[in-house]
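User: Hi! I'm working on a homework problem where we have to compare a predicted structure to a textbook description. Could you give me the structure for the chain below?
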Amino acid sequence: MDEQVFHEKLKKIRWSTNRDDLAQATRTTLQLLLRRPGDQKLLNSLLSQLDGIIRSLPAGSSAKQTGQIRQAAVRCVVLLQSAKKGRLTRAQQDDKDERWRHRRVQILVAATVAVAALYLVLLPHNYKFLKSNQSVAEAIVDAMKNNRLGLTKRDNITVRATHEHTIVTAERLTPEDCVAAAKEIQKMGDLTINDTDVGKPNETKFNTLCHKLGDATLTITVNQYRK
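Assistant: Happy to help. Predicted structure tokens:
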């Protein structure tokens, strides 16, 4: 959903004075925000909370009832903001699907010793993407600056570039490299570590998220217009 449209929806809901209109507007906006398969669990939870809010409201249009509806509208706005923050962006969903496919391939390859050996011989570069003395952060910045529209794979770095934004994902990082890189690139754009949106960055979050798994995946999204 476009950012401007989203804020217009919030404004309309915030000033609702009718219980049924409030319920319908909030439900429709939630369904538009969380329309992908990976969002279904969050959508069901928020719709259940919405039903609870609406059930507590009386029917009618007295001044007291209008005040109660206004208070409920504020709670509905919070639900929508939670939906917007909690949903997976299309790029994040694609990243998640791609990583899952990659891990399935690794499991299948590991099942056969001969295939695993061939995999190691033919694809050793899959575990190396840094130039001599180049940090992870420098590799990410380099990929961000030197890319073309579309999908580009640079061993452990994937770049997705459109006319509106560029997304760089570095995979199979050690937790220490993940933390160091996150500190360096945090001001470049929106950070995601191991499929979790960092939000307001700080060192505690970096340490917690980067150590969540055995290896770490760091994604930075920069919104920028290209001609």
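For your comparison, note the following. The chain has a mean pLDDT of 78. The first strand starts at residue 150 and ends at 154. Good luck with the assignment!
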